[in-house]
């Protein structure tokens, strides 16, 4: 009982002190939502977090889903809130909910919000990923236009410790082919496909040869003569067979 009274007293101190922190009017809508919908123990537990999460922010699925579904998507101020975060360059709804939580953490601990600094951290996190994705997109479309049906092509793929040819995800897609470890295949291009928005490009191939017969490709067993389809949005090394 005494601990409960002490907890409520601490929360009351937080709420009285936080009014001194300058909060943009639009962001204050989000803070008021949390003030209204969080009980005292929940707020106290959140304020006690010593190390805040970094981008992409994760605290708890229930907390984030509530903010995303009920505040950012289905609230009378949703349009205003989203426009505010968009103006900071923060467009992903997960990042918006994370930015709310991180600034709210400062708010209830009577610290300056550092809103722009935390928004910049989000932008800095995504920048190398977006640059990498642009690189992958260009590589995919270049390959789509470079090769013609019936071409014989050579593809080199990195292989993991499970003897499975894999792909690397952004932002780190650079790798060097090692013949003793990695997979090299040749295949005939049977058909190629690209979506109208150019966001999906793929090759249908007929496998001609593999330098490692027992190595799978993305956990798929493929043997000489098999037909398969690959997305061109990958880190693999593709060229014509000379």
Any overview of this molecule?
The structure is a single chain. 45% of the residues lie in helices and 17% in strands. It is built from 7 helices and 7 strands, in the order αααααααβββββββ. The chain has helices at 2-17, 25-37, 40-47, 61-73, 78-87, 93-108, 115-146, and strands at 152-157, 164-165, 183-194, 201-210, 216-217, 227-231, 237-240. The mean pLDDT is 89. Strand 3 and strand 4 form a beta hairpin. It has a 5-stranded antiparallel sheet. Strands 2-5 form a two-stranded parallel sheet. Helix 4 packs across helix 6. It is an alpha+beta fold.
Describe the secondary structure blueprint for this structure.
Layout: H1 2-17, H2 25-37, H3 40-47, H4 61-73, H5 78-87, H6 93-108, H7 115-146, E1 152-157, E2 164-165, E3 183-194, E4 201-210, E5 216-217, E6 227-231, E7 237-240
Parallel strand pairs: 2-5
Antiparallel strand pairs: 1-3, 1-7, 3-4, 4-6
Helix pairs in contact: 1-3, 4-6, 6-7
* Low-pLDDT runs: none
The number of helical runs is 7
Largest sheet at a glance? 5 strands, antiparallel
The SSE string, one letter per element, is HHHHHHHEEEEEEE
Strand content: 15-25%
Class per helix and strand makeup: alpha+beta
Instruction: Tell me the span between the first and last alpha carbons.
Output: 81 Å
Q: What percent of the residues sit in helical stretches (DSSP H or I)?
A: 40-55%
Shape: elongated
| Strand segment count | 7
Mean pLDDT: 89
Order of strands, main sheet, comes to 6-4-3-1-7
